């Protein structure tokens, strides 16, 4: 193992506690928690725990200050203009549900919401729910045989009825990275808002949501090496100011009477009830730590590993990559299917060699339909992976195929 990877792994407690062999390649499902995040979570829960926003005693005030710091750390990581643009949620799923329901009043009968065929269910189902309520229509940007968005189809699928475009920044199945600029151009041409599901992009280095040109951006803490149970919805301040709340409850109001309520300004309007405080502090700590890393070098290594995996898979008879074969415009999420072998069998057999993979539809059934498959096997790379992880996968896969065929 290289010195650089070794130093990184020392920042992830799991590597010291799992028995070898341990080749964790299921990072698209969840990343491992980093030490700064684990420390922040444990410190809060065991030594600094109080509810936030309203207490006047010192412990409660300290918790509120720490919570605001986490918001500021996430704002810095995302490239937000102000911490108030960051809404803490339970994850990408809630973030996208808030987005859909808060934008729903802007939809009218016959309006269109444009998604893509490669979306995760959490960027499909919330839009279907609001479309049904409003008599709007859900349409999709088609996907090429290589598992990328078909940008040539934009002219056809973006219409003067398109009000919202919601796409993932990076596919959790094919690894294709969306050219958000191109989508933005098409959305802007018809005055549509742009929502980006950043669940798979956020773990791979700081972002600049303003430069990206989107209106709302969603991501999950557990994929960003923080705790489970927390995520973020970022929104342009001017837009958030105009949006109604989705969930009602404590902490999101200005004034409540039995008949009606008025609401607090963002982000509180969108954070009903006690937020996931410990997990939010962990997310802030992870973001602050990630921001200190050399992402030029890390991205180069992640892409070199992706190339090694793609080359290795291409050389195995009966293995078909479901996604871009080249490195251009893709990230380290690699799906494949094996002729005559079910994805779950592949995953189970590789588990014997300590290789953690995921097999299934990856919450992307429309994409599976597009590929004519029920399932794929997926390997997904994070900053702590190395050549040994990739080679264990490839060797184990060859062994598995020889045994099962
Ligand atoms: N979108 C994408 C692209 C994802 O990969 C995932 C998680 N697999 C989600 C949304 C949902 O994230 P969460 O389960 O953390 O809410």
UniProtKB/TrEMBL annotation:
InterPro entries for this protein? Aminotrans_V_dom, Aminotrans_V_PyrdxlP_BS, Cys_dSase_SufS, PyrdxlP-dep_Trfase, PyrdxlP-dep_Trfase_major, PyrdxlP-dep_Trfase_small
Residue ranges constituting the Aminotransferase class V domain according to the UniProt record = 23-393
Q: What is its EC number?
A: 2.8.1.7
Q: Which GO annotations describe the biological process of this protein?
A: cysteine metabolic process
General function of this protein: Catalyzes the removal of elemental sulfur and selenium atoms from L-cysteine, L-cystine, L-selenocysteine, and L-selenocystine to produce L-alanine.
Q: Which cofactor does it need?
A: pyridoxal 5'-phosphate
Question: Can you tell which superkingdom this protein's organism belongs to?
Answer: Bacteria
UniProt protein name: Cysteine desulfurase
Sorted alphabetically, the keyword list is: Pyridoxal phosphate, Transferase
Q: Which NCBIfam families match?
A: sufS (TIGR01979)
Which PANTHER family has this protein been placed in? CYSTEINE DESULFURASE (PTHR43586), CYSTEINE DESULFURASE 1, CHLOROPLASTIC (PTHR43586:SF8)
Organism from which the protein derives: Marinimicrococcus flavescens
Q: Record's Gene3D superfamilies? A: Aspartate Aminotransferase, domain 1, Type I PLP-dependent aspartate aminotransferase-like (Major domain)
GO molecular function terms noted in the UniProt entry = cysteine desulfurase activity; pyridoxal phosphate binding
Q: Which reaction does it catalyse?
A: (sulfur carrier)-H + L-cysteine = (sulfur carrier)-SH + L-alanine
SUPFAM superfamilies named among the record's database cross-references: PLP-dependent transferases
């Amino acid at each position: 193992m290289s010195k650089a990877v070794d130093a990184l792994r020392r920042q992830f407690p799991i590597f010291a506690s799992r028995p070898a062999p341990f080749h964790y390649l299921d990072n698209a499902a969840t990343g491992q928690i980093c030490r700064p995040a684990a420390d922040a979570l444990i410190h809060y829960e065991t030594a600094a725990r109080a509810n936030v926003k309203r207490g006047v005693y010192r412990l409660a005030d300290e918790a509120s200050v720490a919570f605001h710091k986490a918001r500021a750390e996430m704002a810095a990581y995302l490239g937000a203009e102000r911490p108030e643009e960051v809404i803490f949620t339970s994850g990408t799923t809630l973030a996208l549900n808030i987005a859909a329901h808060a934008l729903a009043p802007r939809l009218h009968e016959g309006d269109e919401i444009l998604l893509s065929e490669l979306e995760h269910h959490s960027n499909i189902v919330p839009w279907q729910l609001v479309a049904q309520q409003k008599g709007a229509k859900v349409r999709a940007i088609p996907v090429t045989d290589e598992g990328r968005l078909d940008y040539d189809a934009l002219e056809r699928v973006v219409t003067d009825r398109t009000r919202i475009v919601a796409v993932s920044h990076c596919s959790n199945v094919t690894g294709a990275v969306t050219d958000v600029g191109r989508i933005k151009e098409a959305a802007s041409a018809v005055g549509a808002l742009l929502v980006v599901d950043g669940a798979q992009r956020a773990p791979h280095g700081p972002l600049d949501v303003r430069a990206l040109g989107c209106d709302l951006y969603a991501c999950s803490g557990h994929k960003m090496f923080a705790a489970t149970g927390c995520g973020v919805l970022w929104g342009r301040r001017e837009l958030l100011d105009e949006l109604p709340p989705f969930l009602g409850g404590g902490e999101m109001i200005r004034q409540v009477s039995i008949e009606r309520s008025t609401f607090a300004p963002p982000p509180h309007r969108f954070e009903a009830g006690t937020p996931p405080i410990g997990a939010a502090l962990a997310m802030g700590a992870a973001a602050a730590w990630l921001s200190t890393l050399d992402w030029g070098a890390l991205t180069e290594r992640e892409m070199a590993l992706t190339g090694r995996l793609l080359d290795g898979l291409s050389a195995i008879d009966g293995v078909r990559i479901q996604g871009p074969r080249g490195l251009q415009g893709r990230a380290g999420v690699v799906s494949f299917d094996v002729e005559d072998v079910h994805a779950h069998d592949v995953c189970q057999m590789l588990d014997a060699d300590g290789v953690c993979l995921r097999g299934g539809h990856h919450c992307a059934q429309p994409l599976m339909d597009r590929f004519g498959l029920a399932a794929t096997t997926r390997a997904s790379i994070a900053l702590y992976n190395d050549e040994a992880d990739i080679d264990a996968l490839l060797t184990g896969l060859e062994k598995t195929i020889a045994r099962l065929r």
